[in-house]
Design goal:
heterodimer, A: mainly alpha, 11 helices, about 0% strand, B: alpha/beta, Rossmann fold, 3 domains, four-stranded parallel beta sheet, binds iron/sulfur cluster
């Protein structure tokens, strides 16, 4: 089982994700758009538009005005997610550790405080987002099974991830070693990590990544398209 | 049901499904909206209709789902594989529900302002209406407005003679007010400015038009502007029925008239959607290629004159508290928000903002052409217009100025229905009452408010 998840699936996942998203972006770019959709107030055309689209995509100011409590949940969720993704780079290679240590950063301390906080915050906000789907009428009536499933999947990933951080001993060296070999296709010398929870986590993550191009989660890329539609004047 | 009916029912289904499948080829905006919604519910929170009555039918996402579900079922991979789990589902053939729901969105675009992705549900609404229109299912009230407008070039079906006598009447009114002849030139070739109001500003609430005539008079530009006895109504309901062919056919005579008059400026009156079509769609989209004239807006122009100190006002003529309602098409869709305020602050003693305002203002509840539909009067009064009434009440204003005939009609009905204690009118109406000509503002005092 771990052979399948650890040796074969990662390549399929990357392939599906890259081709899927690439195809989406290609199609979106190619689909004709006669006429503009300008929505005022607009930023000053040119550089201002670009900055404003970036701002919308990273800070969600429209949502900030539209639904403050959702903004808090959504922003903290996404910001934690970004931190966590960055933090995972450490698991793939010791390279980043060396850079940080050279800069005089206490890597372990940063990981346990920053990473730990992000892990807890994302758990809280994901639960919040899930409860919100039940609690608010206007959200409940528009929620499909896939909306719940996506959130449950994310929650399962967070849960397994957090239990590795806070619970059972996580062997960084073995995991790094595994990824180093995976990335260089040197399967012969590879030793697979022996943690069940690691494989569960890794499997679910891959499931999620493969699902992205086919689900609403592609909004992380699509937002640049939809925002530029209304912001260009 | 007879065989014939069954067949036509099947045919309707087929046509609708095909039209939805075609979204896969564009426009980009619709395709993105089919795939991007995160179903977060923010749009519902900010929609005047859902605010007025939070039912499933009025949730913007579920209205848009009438199209989106079918799109998913037939075109997206997740929709095909997951089916209902992903919210995919086939069109149920219920066109009555379809038409009702798509004619309950005011097209105000407020949802797009607050949606984290800027998803504009009005685009989906317009698509839904376009599909209905192709099948001949546009509500009769709307159909007849479009038909009248295409036949007579104005939505009231008024003849050039009726128009001219209305203009004569306005000139007499101004003579009574100021004791001098202030002209409203008609069909003058070579006039620099070709004024295109909504017909309501000639036939129903004509003070906006007298206001404009007075501005030209004070500037000594009486001979530089004109109206047309054939084209005096910028209103264009093709925007609302989703029929692009009608919209362009309705638009063309105005462009032709501007060219044949030899005007330099198409001078749009206080009508939000008319200006949006002329400026944002026709001119920017180059419907008819490069044109020998520019589209401008009367409020922009008057505000410039005020800021240049060329006009004087006697504010005591407008002592009551006045607020401004940003029409969605002027505010969110054209970005004309400061000019009307310049005019109102210069002409009224007690100008008050309503909140929120400008690009975030709430729709009057009559947008998207709904204002003309008396068949949904109750809905407009109790549902879509509810928020607006609360907003106005909070300002304590006794006069709501707004630059849109459709907003005005909706407001007039709201006022009557809710027995509210304020009046509604245009922006240049306030100017018309306060502008000083030869050192004096208008004499007449028999205004309604
Ligand atoms: S606000 Fe936007 S993303 Fe959220 S439910 Fe409405 S359309 Fe979808
Ligand atoms: S356009 Fe206006 S009325 Fe229509 S869904 Fe959006 S907010 Fe509601």
């Amino acid at each position: 089982m771990s052979n399948l998840i650890g040796l074969i699936l990662p390549f399929i996942t990357v392939l599906i994700f890259v081709i899927g998203m690439g195809y989406r972006f290609y199609i979106w770019t190619k689909t004709p758009q006669p006429g503009k959709m300008t929505l005022f107030p607009t930023p000053t055309p040119g550089g201002g538009t670009f900055i404003s689209i970036i701002k919308e995509s990273f800070f969600f100011p429209g949502l900030f005005k539209g639904d403050r409590s959702l903004w808090i949940a959504a922003w903290v969720f996404h910001a934690s997610l970004a931190l966590i993704i960055l933090g995972h780079l450490r698991v793939f290679s010791g390279f980043f550790d060396r850079i940080l240590i050279n800069m005089g950063v206490d890597v372990d301390l940063m990981s346990s405080t920053g990473g730990g906080a992000a892990g807890i915050l994302i758990l809280i906000t994901a639960i919040w987002l899930l409860l919100r789907r039940f609690a608010l009428r206007r959200v409940r009536e528009i929620s499909n099974a896939s909306d719940f499933l996506a959130l449950l999947l994310v929650l399962a990933i967070i849960f397994t991830g957090n239990s590795m951080r806070f619970g059972e001993h996580f062997d960084l060296e073995i995991t790094r070693n595994y990824f180093a070999h995976l990335f260089t296709f040197s399967f012969a010398e590879m030793t697979l990590p022996q943690s069940g929870i690691f494989w569960t986590h890794f499997f679910l993550v891959q499931l999620l990544i493969m699902y992205i191009p086919f689900s609403k989660i592609l909004h992380f890329g699509g937002i640049f398209f939809t925002q530029s539609l209304i912001q260009k004047s | 049901m007879s065989d014939e009916n069954t067949i036509s029912h099947e045919k309707v289904r087929e046509e609708v499904i095909n039209a939805i499948k075609a979204i896969d080829n564009g426009p980009q905006v619709l395709k993105l909206y089919m795939e991007m919604c995160a179903r977060c519910g923010t749009c519902a929170e900010q929609c005047p209709v859902y605010y007025g009555e939070p039912t499933k039918e009025r949730n913007p996402v579920l209205r848009s789902d009438l199209i989106r579900s079918t799109f998913k079922k037939h075109t997206t991979i997740a929709g095909k594989l997951l089916g209902a789990l992903d919210g995919a589902g086939d069109f149920d053939g219920d066109m009555e529900k379809w038409v009702t729901q798509f004619y309950e969105c005011t097209g105000c675009r407020r949802c797009a302002t607050f949606c984290p992705f800027g998803i504009d549900n009005s685009v989906i609404t317009r698509k839904g209406r376009a599909i209905a229109d192709k099948l001949g299912l546009t509500p009769d009230t709307m159909k007849s407005v479009v038909k009248t407008s295409l036949e007579t070039h104005n939505t009231d079906g008024a003849s050039p003679e009726a128009f001219k006598s209305a203009i004569d009447f306005l000139e007499e009114e101004m003579k009574d007010e100021h004791g001098i002849d202030i002209k409203i030139p008609v069909d003058v070739e070579g006039a620099e400015f070709f004024y295109v109001p909504p017909s309501g500003d000639v036939l129903v609430n004509p003070e906006a038009t007298t206001g404009i005539a007075k501005v030209f008079y004070v500037l000594g530009m009486q001979d530089n502007w004109t109206m047309s006895s054939k084209c005096f109504d910028g209103a264009n309901y093709g925007l609302f029925t989703g029929n692009d062919t009608d919209m362009k056919a309705d638009n063309k005579p105005y462009v032709d008239e501007a060219i044949s008059l030899g005007s330099k400026y198409m001078f749009m009156g206080e009508c939000g959607h008319a200006y949006r079509i002329m400026k944002m769609m026709m001119e920017k989209g180059k419907w008819w290629g490069d044109l020998p004239f520019k589209v401008v807006n009367c409020m922009e122009w008057t505000a410039d004159q005020i800021e240049a100190g060329r006009l004087e006002f006697d504010k005591s003529k407008n002592p009551m508290p006045v607020t401004y309602h940003d029409p969605c098409n002027f505010g969110r869709s054209c970005g004309i928000v400061e000019d009307p305020r310049v005019i109102l602050k210069a002409t009224c003693q007690d100008f008050r903002e309503m909140y929120p305002n400008r690009g975030e203002n709430w729709c009057c509840g009559g947008g998207g052409g709904l204002s003309a539909m008396d068949d949904i009067h109750d809905f407009r009064m109790n549902v879509s217009g509810r928020k607006k009434m609360e907003q106005v009440k909070d300002t304590g204003a006794k006069y709501v100025a707004t630059a849109c005939s459709n907003c005005k009609r909706q407001f007039m009905q709201l006022i009557e229905y809710h027995k509210a204690d304020f009046a509604v009118g245009g922006v240049h109406d306030m100017l018309s009452r306060a502008i000083m000509i030869n050192g004096k503002a208008a004499e007449r005092i028999d205004y309604e408010s």
